[in-house]
Amino acid sequence: MSRILTSIVERASIYNATYGDKYPRSRLTVTHGKDGVTIDGVWWLGNDYRKKSDFYGAYPGNYLPRVMSLFPDAERVMHLFSGSLPEGDYVRVDSDPDSGAEYIFDGHTMSGWFAAEAFDLILADPPYSAEDAAKYGTPMIRRKTVVAECAKVLQPGGFLVWLDTVLPQWKKTEFRCIGVIGLITSAGHRGRFITIFERQQEATDDKG
User: What would you measure as the largest C-alpha separation in the chain, in angstroms?
Assistant: First the structure.
């Protein structure tokens, strides 16, 4: 079992030790604010011509290694909207029956498929627009609904990493936003946001 990290500061430190010296513009910054500790930054990934997936919307090259460096202790991992991600030590969920995922559904009924607290990390890369969804051959998702469903199957203290072109809505009783990272590949390509949520340990009185 991996040692469980308890601090977002330590997670950012591990990332920066791995990538910060090699890619100084992609270092993460830790902020101590009134709402707690958060991380932010911009990841300049560039084009990775080694990426061989022909699947529309595949993860940007070098994205997953960077994300997973923040969560070396994650053991029960789900890739939601997994696309052509190969089989591995994780659960794949996708609405496209040709994706090869173990579970075929669109994320709106997550709690009907998995038990409460089944995962400690969910990585989501949904369709960014109705046009993108049409290319997948699926309806556009309801972000707020899917985020709420993720909360139902994450353990307290678990994480949701949401890659999108917008910041999704969430309930503060379910999640705390602990980081927002801009993602840039190259000129002429859409910029994206990596929003990192931590599942609340206990209910709060705030409403989102």
Answer: 48
